Amino acid sequence: MLFLLLVFLSSSDAVTLTGLSEYAVPGSEFTLTCDVPEEAAQVQLYRRPGVAAAQVFQWVIQPQTGDHGSVWYCQRTNARLPAVDRLVHSPDYTLNVAGGPRTVTLSPPDITYTRTEGNTLPDITCTADCIPGCAFVWTKPDNTNFTASAVLSLGQLDRSEQGTYRCTVGNIYGSSTISAVVTIQFPPEIDSLEYNQGDADVTEDGSKTLICKVESVPKSTITWYYKNNDTNLFTAADVLESSYTLTTAGCLDTGLYTCSARNSVSNTAVTKDIRINVLCSPRLDPRLFTVRKMLLATHDNLIMNAMFLSNPEPSSFTWTFQYSSHNSFTELNDGTDNFVIHNTHFSSSLSTLSVGTRTNIKEAWFGVYNVTARNSEGYGTLTFTVADKECPCSTDSMYVTGVTLICTSILTLLLTVGLGIFISRNGRLPCIKGQHLKQREFQNVQLSERAVTPNEEEDER
User: Fold this and answer.
1) What one-character DSSP code corresponds to residue 97?
2) Which DSSP helix (H) or strand (E) runs through 440?
3) Which of 161, 209, 155, 211 has the alpha carbon at shortest distance from 184?
4) Which residues, 6+ apart, have CB-to-CB distance to 310 below 8 Å?
5) What is the pTM of this model?
6) Degrees (nearest 5) of the Cα angle 215, 216, 222?
């Protein structure tokens, strides 16, 4: 610190200490002057707390930023004056050193705020100690200026206002920044639900991945469902994105898949559906029982319901007939030989029904019927066996043997039961001829003793 000594005399009894200007500039010369109106043998400059700086009337100092707020005074000494007047010191002088903002604060002092969307945020005031005075600017989270004011006023909150707000304080000597973070909570919204690649289609035994992206504060719990039967597939907590992979797709995996999201500020879950379409060739629908072996009599009507599981819908159906294993299959045409074909597709269940009917069936129409369904993924065949229940003859020798054994067993059983009833009634086999009159009379007497009327007897028989 540089001191320049200028000694002068004064005739006034007041002592003052003044600075060259309102404030000093750090590192630049600044003059302090002690005005002593009376004769002075000695003048000293002090910087509190009472440290003597010099014994001069005028001083040139080079204050630094740290000297801001320091207190100075000067003292005059004159031994020739009465004791009460020998020592006189000036009032305190506070040195103001110019500079950028030294202390920046917020009121309220919180630097983080968490509010639910629609709530109101209190005004936030930015303050700073600046020499000379500072300007204030609040900056939005997107780095655009919000207001040239010390007060941040957002009012009712919208999710777009979430982020970090910065108060910048500055003058020609510098600047400083303080921040407030505003978090706005809101329920989840599903931003997108999509396939990781391609479209909805996937070949059988292939894989498919679905991706669900959510916007929410705080983060959400995402649950995946298979909507066809409301099966819970998978749950991920505290996320903004979740994926579900169908690793080995089957035809019956076709359907709607649901992404459901909710967080701590949700009243209900938000959902969105997406469809996976698993392509498969036609085959017997495993969800339904199909009768494929039938026993009919001649002149009966034949109805064969062939239910296929197929995706996409079959493009064609072919019905064929084989009379016996020694014959080849012949194609059956709709409307010929009493044969009618009717096809119905049920898109919601991926089922297709092909009905083959034959009215007034003949003996030559007993045998094996095949129906083949085709689509872009391949084909599948269902077989129906139709046999004459009155005549145990079939196109297949094993079938003939089986039917013969069944019929023989049934006839034997009926014969045995009939003979047993006849013997219990007549006391002898029906093959013995020539009953005697007395025996008949005896039987009539027995019947009369039982008091059975003719109608009752017939009912009993």
Assistant:
1) B
2) helix 437-449
3) 161
4) 251, 280, 281, 282, 283, 350, 351, 352, 373, 375, 380
5) 0.64
6) 85
Tokens encoding 359: 């009215």
311/453: higher pLDDT: 311
Which residue type sits at 318?
T
Prior bond to 132 cis, omega within 30? yes
CB-side neighbour CA atoms (13 Å) of 30 = 20
Per-residue model confidence as pLDDT tens digits over 58-94: 888 888 888 888 999 988 888 888 888 788 888 999 9
DSSP 142-206: TS-EEESSSEE--EE--GGG-EEEEEEEEETTEEEEEEEEEEEEEEEEEEEEEESSS-SEEETT-
Question: Which H helix or E strand runs over 380?
Answer: strand 378-388
Which of 439, 436, 460, 435 has its CA nearest to residue 450? 460
Task: Tell me the residue type at 94.
Answer: T
Nearest to 343 by CA among 321, 374, 322, 369: 374
**Count of CB atoms situated within 10 Å of the CB of 449:** 8
Contact present, 176 and 146 (Cβ < 8 Å): no
Cα torsion 387, 393, 399, 405: sign: positive
